[in-house]
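To the team - phosphoric acid mono(formamide)ester complex, inputs and output below.
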Amino acid sequence: MTAATSHPVRHYLQFSDFTADEYAYVFKRAAIIKQKFKAYEKHQPLTDRTMAMIFEKASTRTRVSFETGMYQLGGSVVHLTTGDSQLGRAEPIEDSARVISRMVDIVMIRTFGQDKIELFAEHSRVPVINGLTNEFHPCQILADIFTFIEHRGSIKGKTVAWVGDGNNMANTWLQASEILGFKVHLSTPSGYEVDQSVAGIRSTDSYKVFKDPMEACRGADLVTTDVWTSMGFEAENEARRAAFADWCVDTEMMGVAHTDALFMHCLPAHRGEEVQADVIDGPQSVVWDEAENRLHAQKALMEFLLLGKL
Ligand code: CP
Ligand code: NVA
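Output:
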């Protein structure tokens, strides 16, 4: 059951790990799995499979969605944190990966540097999923694009405005734009720009940089933002509050976007900082669907990584 898979192990460490065709399949499965969930129809293709969830940073959505998702698929989970495992006592990542992956069928990790999850995956016998690193948050963008498709159809050819920090979410949106064929309008305060090499994208073709966040939002089909200070960067909080003051998504910004533009935020949100309450709690906001869709999209992801195309 564990580890001795008959097909090569696939990991999901960044958005670019899947092709556009594979995304089309995963989104289709997510819709089917969601429909079954809503109808209280059992869907348990992962009976007797176990997931290890390793959290080195805090989480609400990622933990609840992966944990309930795995149970709903018929499997079970083991929850580890830095503080209550040998991970926090300097056991080498390679050794942890070798041991954990002999006992479970799939691993989800939320950690700091992308290099840590890459190293773990290199020594893992089973699929490893990135549940957020400093550089990427692919599961969130998977759910976000699934949410966009549900509300507006294909994202191909559309424009996504990113207002705020050039962080893990921004990097992942850029990767997604290259793979799925949409455009990102990026507006970040100076000093907080996206670094294309960190984002891991090939060219500048799929994004455009704007000094003024209003200009980034003009004509956009989706406006999205995130906290000014990501986990692990708390020491920069004061400097960031000053630098980001003009990067609050407000009704004026939504007003210059496309008339049926959506607003998304991966959450947790700080009303009055990166987003005005009238926007996140307003009619264009789909943040609750976006949060719920973590569950359905990740169930499709786990099914795909463990069973391939059904
Ligand atoms: N959006 C997201 O990943 O939320 P959590 O930090 O609560 O998991
Ligand atoms: N960019 C944020 C996302 C939280 C889900 C962080 O890394 O803290």
